Amino acid sequence: MVAADQRALEALYRSWTRSRSGGYADAAVWDASAEEYKDFAVPSWDDDPFLELLADDAPLDGATVLDIGCGSGIYAIALAGRAAHVTGIDLSGKMVEYARLKAADAGCANVEFAQGDFRTMRLDGPFDVVIAHLTPAVADGETFAKMMGLARRYCAIAKPARRTDAVLDELRRLVGIEPGGRGMDDDFLKAFSAVWLAGKVPTVRSYEDVWRVARPLDAAVGLYADRLVASDLDAGQKAAVAERLRALAADGVVEERIDTTVMLMGWRMGPSGCMRA
What we know:
Elements: H1 3-15, H2 27-37, H3 49-57, E1 64-68, H4 74-80, E2 85-90, H5 93-106, E3 111-115, E4 127-133, H6 141-150, E5 151-165, H7 166-174, H8 181-197, E6 203-216, H9 217-228, H10 235-248, E7 253-268
Parallel strand pairs: 1-2, 1-4, 2-3, 4-5
Antiparallel strand pairs: 5-7, 6-7
């Protein structure tokens, strides 16, 4: 890597910070979602876009893999059939609990899961392959640099972009907060820039997706007002959020529709990739 790119990469890492607290970077949000996620099926290598990227590009045979933000373990379990060993980590203790049960049911002896915050966790790396699939665990310069530093041979990420959360975006506007879609777009652009400045040539793919979530009204009020909209709303803002959710609820349920373009990026590592912010 030339010195100018090194300096530019270090500056990018320093400037790439998280936006206002709130949203999905909170263990309580994922604990509340774990009951739904435990029923997600293990993806197929035949039709899952992220696995297709890994099958085409990643050196998986005999590899050690780190799955950051593993959720209920479905990608870790899929990878266990091709890699030597997979380690999944997640902020949510409930997600990790279900991931362990799902792996046991699948008979995966070469997968382990641990609960913790990726930002502060000490991990016995490096790993041959490091992935971060649709997780807020890697969403700023510090965590992206840590991901790069843990990878020996290959990295891959999946990130939402051009995303709209029908209910959450409306509630944020209601209390005077900018919706988070643009910030997610910027995250992917900064991730691409970091990989490029590190001297890598990434493979980039995308697909369109729609996610739907249904929450009981009482649970939705607590989750949106205390966590998703922001973690520091005042009493008046929380009351406004609760009132709007009651108006949106149908038969005691608040339905959230999320439309997004999912951006996929994978790249081969080398000595210049093992850099810290």
